[in-house]
Amino acid sequence: MAKVLVVAETKDGQIRKPTLELLSKAKAMGLPADAALIGSGVKGAADTLAGQGAATVYLADDASLANFSLSAYLAAVKEAAAKSQATQVWFSVSELSKSLAPVLAAKLDAGYVGDVVGIEGSGDALTVTRPAMATKIIQKLKFTKDGLKVLTIRSGAFDASPAQAKAATVVALATPPADARVVVKEVKQESGGEIDLGDATRIVSVGRGVKGPEGVEFVKPLATALGAGFGASRAVVDSGWMPYHTQIGQTGRVVNPDVYFAVGVSGAIQHLAGMSGSKLIVAVNKDPEAPIFSVADYGIVADLFKAVPVLIEEIKKHKG
Question: I want to staple 26 with a disulfide (CB 3.0 to 4.6 A). Which of 31, 199, 210, 319 is the partner?
């Protein structure tokens, strides 16, 4: 019988939205689903997974799992998959899954497809779709053999259904042994207060058109007014105007927000690869031939330094 194990991801002890999307998708397809919950101080999040459809939550909660370790997390997921008797293991696309999912598939001799944006079929007879060649084509793939299937799925590809209040059925996993070859000495985080681009439902992104760090700061209040994440094109990051973790595109973050504002972004294909799945795209650029307008739902042909203050004012009026 087909069965899905969703590998949950957390932030500050809370389940991240992409995990809830995966459980909702499994439920919509009529597939029974369990969840693997790994980390430190995460036990309290098990009920959230149950409320989203996880029949059983396989839990590895230990201080040694506070920081990601490939060998430790791999051992926990392998044990959860075995106990769950899952025929499919689903991850959301993230730094964690990019490291963990391919290794899991190799260790278990499983089929693997990454960066999935669509799933069709019933049971284990799946057809999946994913963008390729910087989103210039969409691949439709079928698994050619039976056995375990491992998928990484883009955030925003599916909607999260309303959750129900439900107490979780929890099965404890063994605490994986520490990896003697890798010791985490320090974790450095970027300045707080930012909305993570992977969780943001609204994003404002800036491109080379902002002309410099001062232009970045000029546009940032638009993100604040919208309650949006604040990202950038590769050109902005390469110029040192914004840090790498804000880069959106083929070599940065792939995002799928409800609303995406591209301000001064020309729309190079590498950038489009990271944001073209946004549900609504608004572009501001003074060049009417800018490629970004080919994917935008709404385009404003104007000098961003004149348009952005008007947008902020109108948003504030709308908020009252």
Answer: 31
